[in-house]
User: What shape does this take?
Amino acid sequence: MGILPDSAADNGQIKIGDEVVKINSIKTEELSLIDIVNILRNNTELNLKYLSDNQLKNITLKKEKLFSGQ
Assistant: This one.
């Protein structure tokens, strides 16, 4: 749906249309939505392998607070 400006994904130059193929070395096709939610909740860092412009790329994102009230 979108990428929040100045978020970790935005700063990491991930863009709409990129396809995440692995999260923390686990193939996304092997993960359920609940698995992904748990990974996001329980990790302060995410290691992503993603496909962008027909190239496989790697990035490590650090969880950040999105809003000042968090």
User: Anything to note?
Assistant: The chain has one domain: 8-62. The first helix runs from residue 8 to 11.
